[in-house]
Sequence to fold (287 residues):
Amino acid sequence: MTFLMQVQPSKRPNYPIFYKNTGFGSESKEISRKEQSFVRHFILPISRSLTNPYVKFETNKTQWEKETKFYSSVEKIAMHPAYQRVIGMGMDAVPFILQDLHKEPKQWFWALKAITNADPVPIEDRGRVKKMASSWIAWGRDNGFI
Amino acid sequence: MDLSDDFPQLEETGFRLTSPQTPEYNCIAWAASEDDVWWWPDAQETAYWPPNVARELTIRAFIEAYSQCGYAVCEKEQLEEGYEKIAIYAVDDTPTHVARQLETGKWTSKLGQSFDIEHDVLDGVNGPTYGECAILMRRSK
Fold:
């Protein structure tokens, strides 16, 4: 079954958000697929997407991933306009970024540092993307984002 | 998969995919034979960079980083018995990419957050994204 991560009431978003399917079996996959389909169907209309943080995040993430996939340069990855728009979302973006890191570690660390002014990654783990993601996810739990 | 926008010569000069897509390491680490870390001299210090090497986006800093792995600047891209080579690519003297020579004389490149490829010639990944080879380095095997 798909489950909603526990979010502190003060930081709980007031828009639809879905999380990783942790269940087993075809029924669980089907329910998760339908849920995601429902969420996308609900939020995709332009009138909703203009103000919906989830859509803003997903739209910018998709563009960022597509247009920076061959870059090694952290600056080029982080200075991409779509990435900067995610940073511009401020704290609204943090649960989505952490959720995305949970699915697959990627270069969200610059954005997380810029938005939160925190850095939970030990110096010896710098560059170790999986460990960096784990540190940030733990930080997110400790601070009520997930 | 269309790579022609970023690497217009790749299809013609020959290449093959050699790994699944992964964001866990980049070309700079891959050239140093590491596949679990992202190397880059970013000012935010989110990536690994060898200690005691300037965190600056210059060819000199990249040469110094690989010097710590035993590499020294060389002239020729051709395969040389007893040596392994790397090539630092740049756009307007700004490093963008590093490829490593294989025992066959072909080159291996990790393409950013994407997959690894084996390309037949050094110039295969030339183009708007990586520019062209600016420096060659070699070390004894």
Notes: The helical segments of chain B are 10-13, 27-31, 59-67.
